[in-house]
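assembly run, all chains below
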Amino acid sequence: MIESDVFVQALENLGVNFFTGVPDSLLGGIIEELLTRKLYTPAVREDEAVAMAAGAYMAGKVPAVLMQNSGLGTSLNTLISLNMIYRQPCILLVSWRGFEGKDAPEHLVMGETMPQLLDTMRIPHRALSEPTMMDDLRWVGQTAMKQRIPVALLIKKGIIKGLHP
Amino acid sequence: MRPEQGTMQSRAQAMAALLELLTDQPVIICNGFPSREAHKLADRPTHFYMIGSMGNAPAIALGVALSKPGKQVIVFDGDGNVLMGMGTLATVGALKPKNFIHVVFDNEVYGSTGNQPTISNVVQLEKVARAAGYVNVERVLDRDDLVYEFKDMLKKDGPSMLLVKVNEFVEDAGRVAHEPPAITTRFMNAIE
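ok done. output:
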């Protein structure tokens, strides 16, 4: 499993310097690390987080937004009519709840349909794995900044060490 | 008479009065007629005109304000927009950015879709902002009070909300002439 501080440090090394989002249990370790480093601005809804990140981008930051995949549903309109239309990059760190049908009922539909949803929205995505972490992070950052669109890194259970291992 | 008794000022008149007091501050303007009117009144590179993503104007402004603490950031918002993104009042109130001024043009209707009523005639949005933690909060009806309070807020530490009651009149303003990606680039260069 990837340690949260290693993951956050790798993002910082890539130049990511504005973090916001809404928590998920799978992202708990990352958020704790970000809070320790005083790098995290908590949002109350995922669309708000995405919009805040867009503002930060326009003010010179490289932003990342953390969210549970249910939050993709909440932020759909902002991702499309702000980021896509205005060409504003954003790194989305999305926990993949409901992966392979093993989760609470509320996560199962999004867990199954998320890759298609992202394809339909033309948001490039890839799932994070430990051996490819550096490459995954470079890809997500470069794709977002080069194409100036949101790009999603999907984080399954057990990949990054959480608060309760 | 609707909205609030005694409100004679149009949004464009109120906006013009505020734009006269602004120079190079970043201004995030919500979707719908407000962006079109601001574009017609004074098209500045420091204006970020929104189309779509309703309710997100203050969140975008917050991202700018947190990243550029040395710049005073202004939001031009509407009552329907604030109601849609009301959670952001809490985020702003909790984070308390000093460089954040939130102007709400409250006409009590969704003007861009045919004047369907909002609920801001019964929910006083500036009181919500006050409860959420905005430091300075004012509700004004006429131009003199608007100008006085806005000048005052420009001098004070925020976050501040200035709610101005306006009538339903819409200025004859076309769509914003710039393509959205150009608005992004222009705004970024202007606030650098």
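The radius of gyration of chain B is 15 Å.

Helices of chain B lie at 11-21, 33-41, 57-67, 79-84, 87-95, 125-132, 143-155, 180-191.

not gonna interpret more than that til we talk
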